[in-house]
Amino acid sequence: MGSHSDQGSSAATPGNLPEVQCGREEQELFEDLLRRPGIRIERIVSHGQTTPVDQPYVQDWDEWVLILAGSAELTLEGLGQKGLVTGEHLLIPAGVPHLVTYTADPTIWLAIHIGEP
Amino acid sequence: MGSHSDQGSSAATPGNLPEVQCGREEQELFEDLLRRPGIRIERIVSHGQTTPVDQPYVQDWDEWVLILAGSAELTLEGLGQKGLVTGEHLLIPAGVPHLVTYTADPTIWLAIHIGEP
């Protein structure tokens, strides 16, 4: 998965990650929770969004994702299809093109980007 | 928080993190979900355990924790007391002595160790 967030760290302030705020139900939300050299912890809120089939995500670093609420399905090139429900996690290895083929509305992801430049 | 786990990575296999397995309700459980240079993702299951007041945790790296189930209270030296319920997260900065003063039974933590040697 990619990211469209340039927000800074606000990890010193606890917030409830699985809670969805009202009023932004249409667009996918990307929020950085913590940034350190070589690691970024991101919260993503999806509302049914999927990846266009002709525009798979691919990145040069490992990404570990955990579903905090909702459910999702991904297709990883060469690794097959993966369904994830709340509480399940998956490593998306660096260099593996992948598509999010389904997200429940809402789905809340925790994404750990490891070794991102 | 410290760790007493030497288990390897098993992140390629999804598992449901908030689920508690029966039969191990007494001892605190530490399980590595992913290890990479400079980062370790750990799942911890507490059953009411707390830190002895005279033996605070202190470590040379940042630790970010998220409560996946249950609730906990921590005291961080110089930063005060923090209560965390399911879905809340906290950065424990490197070098800050801290105590876990309460955990519900069960409490499931996700702990991200950043820059651990």
Features:
homodimer; 117 residues; mainly beta; five-stranded antiparallel beta sheet; three-stranded antiparallel beta sheet; disordered N terminus
Short description:
Chain A is an all-beta fold and 117 residues long. Chain A has strands spanning 29-36, 39-46, 62-69, 71-76, 80-85, 89-92, 98-103, 107-114.
Low-confidence stretches of chain A are 2-14
First-last Cα distance of chain A: 15 Å
Question: How many DSSP H or I helices of chain A?
Answer: 0
- Structural class of the secondary structure composition of chain A? mainly beta
Give the strand tally of chain A: 8
Assembly form of the protein: homodimer
Q: Write the element-wise H/E pattern of chain A from the N-terminal end onward.
A: EEEEEEEE
Strand order of the largest sheet of chain A: 1-2-8-3-6
Average pLDDT reading of chain A: 87
Notes on the structure:
Two copies of one chain form a homodimer. Chain A has 117 residues and is mostly beta strands. Chain A has strands spanning 29-36, 39-46, 62-69, 71-76, 80-85, 89-92, 98-103, 107-114. The first copy, chain A, has no helices and eight strands. In chain A, the strands form two sheets. In chain A, strands 1-2-8-3-6 form a five-stranded antiparallel sheet, with no helix packed on it. A three-stranded antiparallel sheet of chain A has the order 5-4-7, with no helix packed on it. The first copy, chain A, is globular, with a radius of gyration of 13 Å. Mean pLDDT of chain A is 87; it is low at 2-14. Chain A binds chain B through residues 11-12, 14-19, 33-34, 36, 38-39, 41, 62, 64, 66, 68, 82, 84-91, 110, 112, 114-115, and chain B through 11-12, 14-19, 33-34, 36, 38-39, 41, 62, 64, 66, 68, 82, 84-91, 110, 112, 114-115.
